Every structure is written in structure tokens, then in C-alpha cells.
Amino acid sequence: MTTTAPEPFGARLRRVMDERGPLCVGIDPHPSLLADWGLGDDIAGLETFTRTAVAALADRVAVLKPQSAFFERFGSRGIAVLERAVADARAAGALVLMDAKRGDIGSTMAAYAAAYLDPASPLFSDAVTLSPYLGYGSLRPALDLARESGAGVFVLALTSNPEGAEVQHAVRADGASVAATVLGRLREENAGAAPMGSYGAVVGATLGDTLGANGVDPAINGPLLAPGIGAQGATPADLPRVFGAAVRNVVPSVSRGVLRHGPDPAGLRASAVRFAEEVRAAVG
Fold first, then answer.
1. How many Cβ atoms sit within 10 Å of the Cβ of residue 3?
2. Where is the Orotidine 5'-phosphate decarboxylase domain (predicted)?
3. pTM of the predicted model over 0.85
4. Is 65 labeled as catalytic in the residue annotation?
């Protein structure tokens, strides 16, 4: 009996970005946002916040990105809310990027991969964020399982927080920076993929001209998750300057810029649509 291989994440992401606009909205139930919505910092507040955001956005944005930590802090009940959010978002047509930033070695990395990239897992997501700072090769269990299951990964390369530079701009013995090395390895993973590879990088939209200044090429034939739009100061108009020829594969990520318009579903939807339209106009 033959089985049909799942459609790769990169192809699915390209299609939904073209259809809905290139935008990722973070689902970040931060205590301050719960308070702004008039909700308690408890499991009831978490559930209402998450259900409202997913119902308002999942049928119109390309990617929803739940931040796992804000659910994990409530223990098993929080994880149950996260499982439901993942299922509901995917059912409504959004791709789900689990923002977990996992990184480990051997069997532990394989277990993390199974949690988010095995279709049999209740937390199975379309993609997951990974940290490569135990060595890029330590990510191999997740990279291989992503390929097998038609999922994707986004590996931290050049993040939007200023502290990241002390590691990411560090220079190896061969003269390449750590960030450039990570991007180069992802470029190898994506070689020959069309319309776009499934192995993405996290590269901050707040970096300005520092990519070129540091000799870093973000063109990896894969998606580039770009945090920093909105509350962190970057705008859609900044994207072509930061990413250059790779800008068409950029998935800008905004969280508070959309979520602050809740709990009104219409406000959430209008804000997300506005950001998506601004990004589409900026990147052509």
C-alpha cells in the first residue's frame, strides 16, 4: 500500500500567505493583557482570552503563534487550553506556529520534536520555534520529523532582543558569525525546495541595516519569521530595507499591536486585516 506524502509546510505557508496576507499574530495571554481585557489572571481568564482571539482571527490570518510559556504557567489546565486553541485554529484554516523555542540533545530533543511535530500528538502544530545554541546538529531529530510530517521549524538566528547580539554576532574561527552559520545551514536544508522551503529562521524586523553591515544574508529559500512589528517599534515599511530581496518570504509577527484591540472581536479582526494590508503593500 502506498501512502501520499504530506504537503510540505513551506508550500502550505506560501499559499496561505498569498491568500490571506503575510502576517503572523501571536497569542500571548500576558497578565497585563488579561487585565486590559477585564479578565482575571487565572484559568478562566486564560480560556476566555484564548478562545476569543482564536475565534476572531483564525479564519483570516495566515499564521497564529501561541506563546507556550503563557499557557504552561497554569499547569495541565493551561496546556489543555493550548491544545484546544491549536485544534480550533487549524480547523479554521490558520497555520499554527508553536512558539516554544525548544533546544536540547539526543532523545530529549526527539521528545520535544514528537510533542509538536508528530501528527499523533495533541499539541501537533504546523511549525515550532527552535533554539540552535546546543549546536545546529542537535536539532536534527526535529528537522527530520518536520520533513516526515509535512511540518516546519523556525530556528533562532538574529532575534529582536538586544541581548541576542552577544551570541548571535559572535564570530567563529572560520570568520563567519554564529547567525550567518545558522542561516547557512537552513539554506542547505531548503536547497531545491519550491515554492519555498519548510525550514525557517527567526530574524527580527527591528534590526535595521545591521544584516548587511554584518555580512548576513537572510535569503535561505525559506520563511523568515520577523518579530518586532508594532509594540517593539518596527513597521511594515521597514521590511524591504531590512530583508532586501528575501522580503517576499518574510512572515511579520505582531502580538500586542493586535491583541490590545480586544476583547472586541471586530477590533481584533480589523487590526489584523490592517496590518496584513500594510505588509502586503510594503513587500509587493
1. 5
2. 22-271
3. yes
4. no
